[in-house]
Amino acid sequence: MRLRPVYGAGPLHLLSHVAALALAAYAFTRIFAGGQPWNVVLWSAGALVLHDLVAFPLYSALDRLARGRRARPSINYVRVPALLAGLALLVFAPLILGLGDGRYERATALSQDVYLGRWLLLCGALFAGSALLYAVRARTRGGSR
């Protein structure tokens, strides 16, 4: 019996979805084994509200401002590194901003003082790589015309 006519996709698609569901089930068992599942619910609800009411209007306005009147494909060379730098800031904000209460240093025996410099270095590398890629593509497009 062939899987595609019955399932609608190939066996690799089915296997990847089964693996993703198994990973999600494992994550839920770990969350509920921790004894504080409501913290996850509250954080998720807070993140949803914060994103929809604050972050989305803010980055939509910034994107419209950056694009101006015409949509230019070159805006992606700024948009992508800015998104990645913002995501890194969001994930590591307490460490980057030095807001830790010492638990990180006690747990890892590492200082959190290096995170701001490393985040700035990451931002510089992302934007420099994007500028280099833009320059290479602009040169090859300009040379072929």
Fold topology:
Elements: H1 3-7, H2 11-33, H3 37-67, H4 76-96, H5 103-108, H6 115-144
Helix pairs in contact: 4-6
Q: How would you describe the overall organization of this protein?
A:
- With 145 residues, the protein is mainly alpha-helical.
- It folds into 3 domains: 35 residues; 35 residues; 73 residues, no CATH class.
- Helices cover 80% and strands 0% of the residues.
- It contains 6 helices and no strands.
- Helix 4 packs antiparallel against helix 6.
- The model has no long low-confidence stretch (mean pLDDT 86).
Q: Could you say which overall geometry the principal axes of the C-alpha atoms support? A: extended
Low-confidence parts: none
Task: Return the domain count.
Answer: 3
Q: What is the arithmetic mean of pLDDT?
A: 86
Query: Which percent band covers the strand fraction?
Result: under 5%
The major beta sheet can be summarized as: none
Instruction: Quickly count the helices.
Output: 6
Helix content: over 70%
Helix and strand pattern: HHHHHH
Structural class by SSE content: mainly alpha
Number of strands: 0
What is the rounded distance between the termini? Answer: 53 Å
**Gyration radius over CA:** 22 Å
Offer a few descriptive terms.
145 residues; mainly alpha; 80% helix; extended
What is the structure about, briefly put?
The chain is 80% helix and 0% strand. The chain is mainly alpha-helical and 145 residues long. It is extended.
